[in-house]
Amino acid sequence: MSQNLRKFLGIPLMLVYLVTYVLVMMALGATLAGYGVSEWVRFFYHAVAGFAWLPGAMWIIRWMVKPDGKRSSGRR
């Protein structure tokens, strides 16, 4: 798969991933607030949730910018 095609597919994939992540984390945060947990627990939840999206996004970006496979052009 060429890098251009991976970028073309990666951008919608990134948008779907981020929107899904935000909605899930928002629902979990609202659940925590509904249970009346302490402010410290909610603070740490938001701190962790604020950075937890990075590994998934980094994986998608690494996949998108991976160089194309070596092509044999016949030249030396």
Structure description:
- The chain has helices spanning 3-34, 39-51, 54-65.
- The protein has one domain (3-65).
- Helix 1 (3-34) runs antiparallel to helix 2 (39-51) and helix 1 packs antiparallel against helix 3.
- The model has no long low-confidence stretch (mean pLDDT 90).
- The two termini are 24 Å apart.
- With 76 residues, the protein is mostly helical.
H and E order = HHH
Q: Span from first to last CA?
A: 24 Å
Please provide the count of β strands.
0
Helix content: over 70%
- Content-based structural category: mainly alpha
Would you identify the regions where 5 or more consecutive residues have pLDDT less than 50?
Answer: none
Report strand %.
under 5%
Mean pLDDT, rounded to whole units? 90
Number of domains: 1
Radius of gyration (Å): 19 Å
Q: The biggest beta sheet, please?
A: none
Tally of helical segments? 3
| Overall 3D form | elongated
Keywords:
mainly alpha, 76 residues, elongated
Provide a short characterization of the protein structure.
By secondary structure, the protein is mainly alpha-helical.
Annotate the secondary structure layout:
Elements: H1 3-34, H2 39-51, H3 54-65
